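Hi W.,

Here's what went into the run:
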Amino acid sequence: MMQRRNFIKTSLLLSAVALFNPERYQHRLLGFEEAIELTYQQVLKEFCEGRTAVDGSLLISLTIPTQPGSSVTIPVEVSVESPMNEEDYIRSIAILTTKNKVNKAVIVEYTPANGIAYLFANIKLSQTQDVVVLAKTNKGVIYKASKKILVAINGCD
Amino acid sequence: MARKRRAAIKILDKNYAVGDVVKVQIIIIHPMETGFAKDKHSGEAKPRFYVKEIEIFYNNTQVTRFELDVSASQNPKIKFPLKITEAGMLKVRFINSEDEVTEKTTKVKPK
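Here's what came out:
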């Protein structure tokens, strides 16, 4: 009689341990797979550092296909008119999305050693939305340009 | 648990001299898991796993730094300009979200 009771107790304990096995939830406890959403306003605030962006559609030329075949890899080509010398150069270029869950794609920091302000990168989009490109000069002026991209299938699983 | 990853750095222009601006292409074969997607079979969320940072060194001085996030496509391919000042080495260093480092170099030989 006692034996059976003991057997039931131990089996219950073991199953409880197996259910709450720390190894199974370790990645969650340590925060490895913490999927953090990042809104467009948050990224914009972080990049602009309190300044407001000026319209720079004349300075920034964007080359993005309007109706890309695949939304998983969308080529984005940016070139900004700038002398790129020690006094006046583009310090940073950011490619941002507006309606993805995480709206930061690529941020690059340039120096006068780069010669011209140009950037090519592949991004992915979840739905039809604006792609925003921001360019920051060494004096802190921020130029902004955007283009609407039509997306048929969610490429952001 | 350092895994060897396929990566490359390449100067796209063929004939260049000192003073020219060339375009350099970098690519790494790497997944970009957002952390929101679920596995089709087990139903568990796939952990967030992406390339976090890319640094470019031209003769041991850092010229460019990239900050990536999960909205960049998988196997990120980037082209950037560089002004050639002297012969030497161009080095790229990829750092992913688990602090795994992949380094590649190429020679700079202006004519």
